[in-house]
Amino acid sequence: MKAGVEDGNGAIVVPLLIGNGDEIIDHKDNDHGFVSGSTSFFKTCFNSVNALSGVGILSLPHAVSSGGWLSLIFFFLIAASTYYTALLIQRCLDMDKNIRSYSDIGGRSFGSKGRAIISIATNIELYLVATGVMASFVLIGSVLWAAVFDGIGFHGKGTFVNLKGFPIAVSLHAFCYCAHPVFPALYNSMKDQKKFSKVMLVCFLVITTSYASMAVLGYLMFGSKAESQVTLNLPTSKTSSKVAIYTTLVNPFAKYALMLKPVISALENHLTSSPSRGLSVLIRTGLVLSTIMVAVAIPFFGYLMSLVGAFLSVTASIILPCVCFLKISGIYRRFGFEMVLIWVIVLVGGVILVVGTYTALEEIIEHL
């Protein structure tokens, strides 16, 4: 997830891409006195796609391999659910213009405890996730080239459904849609915020098409032999494979510091109001060492991503937007179709969270 500049609580509050006259300007709302942006529709679309594009694309063939072709139904259901919850976030922002970040939504809904829960969930998510829109398209192109021109072909044998691997598959699908904490920043950066729902539609159509293409392409190529990262299946001697592998390697290096910045700011502001240089260096060093330790201790890409997907992505992108919207809007007080729909999404998200987290932890412990 590509981070922007954050406020004192570590929340992302400004647009991710600014240029050619698009900047944060001081437009004061007469009723609320908030600062709005002037980012164009197309740049907001790019930023949204960039926020959702990430390393999850590498695990999608393995996800289908784990759950079978039928797991793709859940992939599209998760895509539809997270698109809907993104719109719920927009509606929360529309109802109270003093809300400027995802943490603010939690604070507006459930006070300081709600703010703390959302801040913790989103900062841990930033700590574990690295993304990039161009990297995703380069990877798809490289894998397709390997299939068509490098002799791999589409000979993988797959299954229709594998119930044992279904929880891992669904968790990996959920991991791909984990950019909701940045959506308030994108909304606030827009010149015409009424078009944000159209931005989300374009974003989710592009991302879902991209992810589904990689899932189907990789599974047709490697079938049940698909590795946790599709690049592990590619022949290392081929140019297309090298492009895919190097893209995968360069992307986290390019975004590592940017992703951890909100986490660092949150820690610094929690520990002291004016952190010293020594404390800042200590925090940064500690975070770098801790991520290295996590990578060494849990070298199972697929299972780690499924754990993040089930526990953090489902929480931050499905459950919390629904619960916060119910609280802010007051819709939970009256029976209706939308209230039932939201509670169904929360219930299904809860099942994915519990079953997916348990299964991922079980697999990680088994392979340690």
Short précis:
The protein is mostly helical and 368 residues long. Helices cover 68% and strands 2% of the residues.
Structural class: mainly alpha
Largest sheet strand order: 1-2
Report the count of strand segments: 2
**Full CATH superfamily name:** Amino acid/polyamine transporter I
Distance between the ends: 28 Å
Tell me roughly what share of residues is in helical segments.
55-70%
* Topology-level CATH name: Amino acid/polyamine transporter I
The fraction of residues assigned to DSSP E strands is: under 5%
User: So how many helices?
Assistant: 12
| Run of helices and strands | EEHHHHHHHHHHHH
Shape: globular
Per CATH, the class reads Mainly Alpha
Radius of gyration: 20 Å
**Sheet bearing the most strands, described?**
2 strands, antiparallel
Number of separate structural domains: 1
Characterization of the model:
This protein is mostly helical. It has a single domain (24-367), classed as Amino acid/polyamine transporter I (Up-down Bundle), CATH 1.20.1740. Helix content is 68%, strand content 2%. It contains 12 helices and 2 strands, in the order E-E-H-H-H-H-H-H-H-H-H-H-H-H. It has helices spanning 41-52, 56-67, 71-95, 102-128, 133-149, 166-175, 183-189, 196-222, 239-271, 277-297, 301-329, 337-367; strands at 24-28, 35-37. Strands 1-2 form a two-stranded antiparallel ribbon. Strand 1 (24-28) and strand 2 (35-37) form a beta hairpin. The longest helix has 33 residues, at 239-271. The two termini are 28 Å apart. Residues 1-35 have low confidence and may be disordered.
